[in-house]
Amino acid sequence: MLVACRCGNTVQVSQDSIREGICWCDSCGALINLAEAPRVQSTPDAPAPPRPAPRQPPPKTTGPPPQPRAPKAVGPPPQPRAPKPIGPPPQQRPPKTTGPPPQPRAPQPRAPQARAPQPRAPQPRQEPRPAPRSAPPADAPPPSGLADAAAAAASSPAPRRSGRKQPVIAQGIGGPTTKRPDPRRRAPHPLLPMLAIIAATTAMAIFTAGPADVDANAGANAAGVVPGQVDLIGYWPLDGNANDSGPYRLNGKLVGGPKFVPGRIGKAAEFNGKNRIEIRGHAAFDAATDAVTIAAWVKLPNTPQHDWAGIVTRGDATWRLSLADKANGRLSFSINSGSPNDYAASTATSLNDDKWHHVVGVYSGVTVDLYVDGQLAGTNSRVSSAVNRQSRPIWISGNADKPGRELIGAVDDVRVYQGAMTDAQVRDLYQQSN
Questions:
Q1: Other residues' Cβ atoms within 10 Å of the Cβ of residue 3
Q2: Is a pLDDT exceeding 90 seen at residue 236?
Q3: Domain count along the chain
Q4: How many CB atoms are located within 10 Å of the residue 125 CB?
Q5: How far are the Cα atoms of 230, 283, 295, 419 from residue 233, in angstroms, in the given order?
Q6: Are 209 and 215 in contact (CB under 8 A)?
Q7: Fewer beta carbons below 10 Å: N end or C end of the chain?
Q8: Could you read off the pLDDT of 337-378 as tens digits, one per residue?
Q9: CATH number at residue 324
């Protein structure tokens, strides 16, 4: 079947398209509804010439015709089977007896359930809008108290236009409203980040230094030393060895076999009057001549000691923290600026009570101070020169320039600083290590 498309093309319709009732145009691709599309009469074609008859194959030559086969012998016909006997017809079951018909149930009355009142969300109160102010007439005089300001404003030059945004008149639901700019969206001042960095740096410096350091940085003393500016040179915890935990790693050497016993902090070195710990000299010790601080925990038994038995010393001609000359348990801290200039501060009471005490010797360039358990126990303000510059090793127990002054007792947590600690710093060190 042929149908005509709107584009003028003639479309041959297949049997599947006839069953579906639609087809597609091969030229324009349009969908053609066969029920509405006009049909095209096909022109009769010329009659096809007759086909030649197919050739018949020649007959095959065969032998004699086959003889008919004899019929097979068939037995007697099967006898019909006797019908099976059928028993008596089944008895009909009596109908089931049912009880009386069910009675209809009476409807149960339901008690009315009281509904819980639903809480209502509070409605925001709508404040009445204030009536818009009417502008005063142009010829009205200014209110009292503003006449002078108005006259000054009129006589002064026009102010420079600032970058502040002016209020914007916006159309709202209830009428025109005034939309003021948000002050938080203003551009920050260009110097604000720099000021924030300076403030943060200052706060971090104060936090790192601590209150004692801030108070100590007031100024230098008569010797040019700023009390409170201290730098750690060496720190020997003496927890089972003589290693240095300070910046220069000045590890000590055990001489005579001092023992390590339970100390004030961890372990401590115990001396018997014949052994010691030797620490080699260093340029950092030589630089600590204008001010120096020595701290240690000491435990002294109530036994006779050597005269001037050393606790922590740097020879006999620089500085030494030791016992007093009479060996009665009093402590002494002295500095030497060249013989015979020897300046010492001593305690008034004995410390040979077999208890731990925190002792600190401070030389500030103008005074020699000795602290016991965070409190000032002795001072000497008659100092007129700096510590003698002599390269000497540091001994814990004994004196490198005076053999035979080894200590009997225990020493723990030895520290040497360049600079003079203040009273507050000494108390802080005592509390931190206590």
A1: 20
A2: yes
A3: 2
A4: 6
A5: 9, 10, 12, 10
A6: no
A7: C
A8: 765 567 899 999 999 999 999 999 999 989 999 999 999 999
A9: 2.60.120.200
**Of 28-37, 114-123, 175-184, 245-254, which gets the smallest average pLDDT?**
175-184
Is residue 357 situated within a structural domain? yes
Residue 283 lies in a domain: yes
Q: Which tokens is 42 given?
A: 């096909």
What is the residue type of 29? G
> Which residues constitute the domain of residue 292?
231-433
Segment 273-330, tens digit of pLDDT: 999 999 999 999 988 888 999 999 999 999 889 889 999 999 988 899 999 866 578 9
Mean pLDDT of the chain: 77
Instruction: List b or e across 100-118, with b for residues whose CB sees 16 or more CB atoms inside 10 angstroms.
Output: eeeeeeeeeeeeeeeeeee
What pLDDT band is residue 46 in, cutting at 50, 70 and 90?
A: very low
Single pTM value for the model = 0.51
| Residues 145/150/156/160 CA torsion (nearest 10 deg) | 110
Residues 6+ apart with CB under 8 A from 272: 258, 406, 408
- Tokens coding 265: 């902090």
Q: For residue 81, is it within any domain?
A: no
Q: Could you tell me which of 34, 11, 38 has the C-alpha nearest to residue 22?
A: 34
